[in-house]
Known about the structure:
Layout: E1 3-5, H1 8-32, H2 40-69, H3 79-104, H4 112-139, E2 144-146
Antiparallel strand pairs: 1-2
Amino acid sequence: xxxxxxxxxxxxxxxxxxxxxxxxxxxxxxxxxxxxxxxxxxxxxxxxxxxxxxxxxxxxxxxxxxxxxxxxxxxxxxxxxxxxxxxxxxxxxxxxxxxxxxxxxxxxxxxxxxxxxxxxxxxxxxxxxxxxxxxxxxxxxxxxxxx
Length: 147
């Protein structure tokens, strides 16, 4: 079935929107933790960088694992697996945000329960940012066709 994927402008739009959203998350985090002196832009840079580094690895790794578990997939599309995959992605995002917070909270005395609560909030924010970011990526010019 022929189709197309977002090209470079779409990818730039996606990453740019996510970075902007992460700057807002960094500003909120600085309000919640006044002792935090890391800039919102640095927090956004760390989170965006980890997303760019770990995102494709997670996607390809998931496809590899699914191919091993289900070598002969059914011919009818299973929409339930998409929800399961996104739920797994949300879990990974909690861990990525925990890593970001571990990095930026270094030297501060922040309770682990707060770190995990902030990680959950960051993961929820990342998931919400997907809606406009994906929409922007799909409407951006420069799509790459595939067959």
